[in-house]
């Protein structure tokens, strides 16, 4: 076969192969289909390359990805009634009366940016997603190859997400001195991009890579470049194929996940994918994210706890407060007599402890809050 590959043609070819239950789909096969090497097949108008010849997201491609998010966004945000005037007045009073308000945020606020949460009806768990655990990541090199191959592809979609109305409203409240500081469970860095200056990322961030050997931290963009340099065919294949509808073969069957991971159908996975090692010590690299089964680093957990202990109220937004690393903060606030407010669609672990609970979309709640009284902008 000697295909002149466009992403679409390649997708059609892959679709044909999938009917034959082609379980493992490596670059060697891709190369065969394409008649001799993917890097040369850059017919997609959206593809651009850097000085190393590695694919980058063009502005047009970025718009295309963002457009996809706009379609997905509606599905990802759980249904909820608008907040009542009574709820909004209570929240206004809650914020107004606090001098040192700490806000705790979770994955629910980033659904408005196209990143799914875990536990809501349309969240990642609803489609059977099982996030990688710390122990699984450590166990075998094969697991890490699979993780990084998927994560490389998913990173660019993650990067295309923009801060949503909740991120922006919280940044406004912070700039007006009404929010002392944010503690987030999210790893997407959208608070920073919205303008919040000093959010504590309790569970780390996908924007850094961490060496398990020497502790060296590397910027994720640099790591992505190293992956691309080591796996140019994979990088080009990702660039060529991800233009399809979400979930289709043309997108590798990719589904974005809240921790920056994505799913790629196993038939697309590349066995000979190479993972860069630490440049300082040759150690194993992992995203600077607290995977399930691991603990929040002690210093960071203590910093978050000290912040809560110095606050006079805590507002939790977009979190079911299920995981212990964040529930313990809420419990500590209650134990010291601080009021806790919750804005979340669906039950949370702290509903019985809260003095205020609003079940509505956080973006709508906080945007309307910014039109009220002394908080108006
Ligand atoms: Zn190292």
UniProtKB/TrEMBL annotation:
Record: residues binding Zn(2+): 211, 214, 278, 281
Cofactor binding: number and manner: Binds 1 zinc ion per subunit.
Alphabetic keyword roster: Metal-binding, Mitochondrion, NAD, Transferase, Zinc
- Name the family: Belongs to the sirtuin family. Class II subfamily.
Origin organism is Marchantia polymorpha
| Residues noted as binding NAD(+) in the record, renumbered to the chain | 185-188, 318-320, 344-346, 362
Instruction: Write down any Gene Ontology CC term.
Output: mitochondrial matrix
- Put simply, this protein is called NAD-dependent protein deacylase
Q: Which reaction is recorded as catalysed by this protein?
A: N(6)-acetyl-L-lysyl-[protein] + NAD(+) + H2O = 2''-O-acetyl-ADP-D-ribose + nicotinamide + L-lysyl-[protein]
Which EC class is this protein assigned?
transferase
| Residue span(s) of domain Deacetylase sirtuin-type | 81-377
Instruction: Give the top-rank taxon of the lineage listed in the UniProt record for this protein.
Output: Eukaryota
Kindly give the InterPro entries that the UniProt entry links to this protein.
Answer: DHS-like_NAD/FAD-binding_dom, NAD-dep_sirtuin_deacylases, Sirtuin, Sirtuin_cat_small_dom_sf, Sirtuin_class_II, Ssirtuin_cat_dom
